[in-house]
Write a structure and sequence with these properties.
Oligomer: single chain
Number of helices: 8
Strand content: 5-15%
Radius of gyration: 21 Å
Distance between the termini: 30 Å
Structural class: alpha/beta
Strand order of the largest sheet: 4-3-2-5-6
């Protein structure tokens, strides 16, 4: 797919896995493709959700799943010059963005957890993962996502202590669900959240201890939204800059120009 046409987004917004349910005769290529893309998410946070989505069909892939995998490759064709860019001129404050797509999976109705953490202006970790159980409300899904993010911030705090890096203030956790944010500071459960398990009050305990701060952020500025669902081309370009992905210089030559150069050399 070297000469394929680039695509502006890795996945379409409304996916239909039943458009072509023909099973693949040999799923080895699809599994190898998705396995390689999983390694690529270590340096391409904008691929986390799309790769996580197609990796859920490794056991029984169809032609529709293969089409989505090839679309990711077409997106890479147009963004292969992007890479992570880190700056030294930044603070050492920890912050994170947490989001959840409630009942986003049309098959199992499980929600998707997405978060990304920053050390100053530099992104240092990110995750897009389907939740293990079905959330009965958006508050439960968002609170569960905040709990995972708070645990990640706690681990990063311990890691910074081992490196003798001491942030001057507690980490800030940004979320766009007001009900979930209210639960982090209010120990009283109302009727809409009685089914939330007690272990997800981990966030509230961290807030009560003063080692975590939670703040509201509008959904339009929620960076973690890119890890929970397929978004439009405009929002993808906006969030790509916030995720420290910028065009960079590369010493790697183009494939077509390299082959042309080899041909001219052989002719000489």
């Amino acid at each position: 797919m070297v000469d394929c046409q680039p695509m502006p987004t890795p996945l379409v917004q409304r996916m239909d896995v039943t458009s072509d349910p023909t099973p693949l005769g040999d799923p080895t290529f699809f599994r190898g493709l998705v396995g390689s893309l999983q390694y690529l998410t270590l340096t391409c946070p904008d691929l986390s959700y799309s790769v996580n989505y197609v990796s859920q069909f490794m056991h029984n892939p169809t032609m529709s799943h293969l089409k989505y995998g090839r679309r990711i490759l077409r997106y890479l064709k147009g963004t292969i010059h992007y890479g992570l860019s880190f700056t030294a001129d930044t603070s050492l404050a920890l912050s994170a963005f947490s989001d959840a797509d409630w009942a986003g999976c049309p098959t199992t109705r499980r929600s998707t957890t997405g978060y990304c953490t920053f050390l100053g202006a530099n992104i240092i970790s990110w995750c897009a993962k389907k939740q293990h159980t079905i959330a009965r409300s958006s508050t439960e899904a968002e609170h569960r996502s905040m709990a995972h993010t708070a645990a990640e911030l706690t681990w990063l705090g311990y890691l910074l202590d081992d490196l003798r890096v001491y942030p001057t203030k507690p980490p800030i956790l940004y979320g766009d669900n007001l009900s979930a944010l209210h639960l982090t500071v209010n120990p009283v459960l109302h009727t809409r959240s009685k089914h939330v398990a007690l272990d997800y009050h981990y966030v509230r305990k961290r807030v009560a201890q003063g080692v975590l701060i939670t703040r509201y952020i509008p959904s339009a500025y929620q960076v973690a939204d890119i890890f929970t669902k397929s978004i439009t081309k405009t929002r993808l370009a906006q969030f790509r800059r916030k995720l420290c992905l910028h065009p960079g210089h590369s010493l790697r030559g183009d494939i077509s120009s390299g082959s042309h150069k080899d041909g001219s050399t052989s002719q000489e």
